[in-house]
Amino acid sequence: MDLRHLRYFLAVVEEAHVGRAARRLHVSQPALSQQLRDLEHAAGGPLFTRHAKGMTLTAAGEALVGPARIAVASAATALAEVRLASGQAEDRLVVGLPETGTAFELVRLALGELDARFSPSVVQTSGLPWLHQPQAVLRGSLDVGFCWSAGLGKPADGAYPPGMASIRLCDDPGSDALIPWDHPLAEREQLGPEDLRDLPLGLYDRTLHPSLHDVITSAARQAGFHRVMLAEGVGSASASAPLVLARTGWTLVQKSVALQPPAGTRAIPVKNLRVDAGLDLIFREGDNRKSVVGLVDGVRRTFAQVQ
């Protein structure tokens, strides 16, 4: 297994179709299919379920998405920082993406419009998880990122470090629990603290995003979760999926993710639980390059059209 396998795997995940992924990667469909088979052999089992209209992830595939994105993003970040240090940085725009849900689809649409205005080589996407994107933007290994933060209408004070500009694209509150689709609770239309009290709440490490972490745990306690058991070390619907699928916990997801939950899971509203938050576009203050301004304008227009 190497980085090429992981890049190809992520392209198929994002396109949900081998043919579309092959066109995006500029490789033949048989060659891409062979790479997927090689990866599945190395993984010890199927990563996708094949359908007539496309492909969906298996539980094993869901478990690989987060680590694959981190590995690919880490390699891209290392290369970008080496080029920056050697004075050989390319005139290009490196963009982080939301990891899942309807927000991911909207950002992909906006980037497609940007590709029509600039050379395709200008825009390169990164699979770096959203929790790590603010620091990557500040370091310069990402030019533009997307991150969730607390607050309605705009990010809460102190959500981002100095030197970073942010634009609230949409409010995206968290009020749904992600659980396995075949869990006994999955048939319920609503859940309460009494249903989830014996399962740990999967959250990312607090050091990555203290303000949002504290808002989530505070909202859970106010909703009646008097004993919030945290399963630290996970950070998103994609990263939390193995925890959820293993029936060892649950995680809180935003509405955009609840509309398109990861394979094998179901999102169910939780009574009296709501975390006021939203999706922000982030970039370095004072970065007025044409490509950055064009992307910011394009993404804002795309989100405005669907609100």
Automatic annotation (TrEMBL):
<dbReference type="GO" id="GO:0003700">
    <property type="term" value="F:DNA-binding transcription factor activity"/>
</dbReference>
<dbReference type="GO" id="GO:0032993">
    <property type="term" value="C:protein-DNA complex"/>
</dbReference>
<feature type="domain" description="HTH lysR-type">
    <location>
        <begin position="1"/>
        <end position="58"/>
    </location>
</feature>
<keyword id="KW-0238">DNA-binding</keyword>
<dbReference type="InterPro" id="IPR036388">
    <property type="entry name" value="WH-like_DNA-bd_sf"/>
</dbReference>
<keyword id="KW-0804">Transcription</keyword>
<keyword id="KW-0805">Transcription regulation</keyword>
<dbReference type="Pfam" id="PF00126">
    <property type="entry name" value="HTH_1"/>
</dbReference>
<dbReference type="InterPro" id="IPR005119">
    <property type="entry name" value="LysR_subst-bd"/>
</dbReference>
<dbReference type="InterPro" id="IPR036390">
    <property type="entry name" value="WH_DNA-bd_sf"/>
</dbReference>
<protein>
    <submittedName>
        <fullName>DNA-binding transcriptional LysR family regulator</fullName>
    </submittedName>
</protein>
<comment type="similarity">
    <text>Belongs to the LysR transcriptional regulatory family.</text>
</comment>
<dbReference type="GO" id="GO:0003677">
    <property type="term" value="F:DNA binding"/>
</dbReference>
<dbReference type="InterPro" id="IPR000847">
    <property type="entry name" value="LysR_HTH_N"/>
</dbReference>
<dbReference type="Pfam" id="PF03466">
    <property type="entry name" value="LysR_substrate"/>
</dbReference>
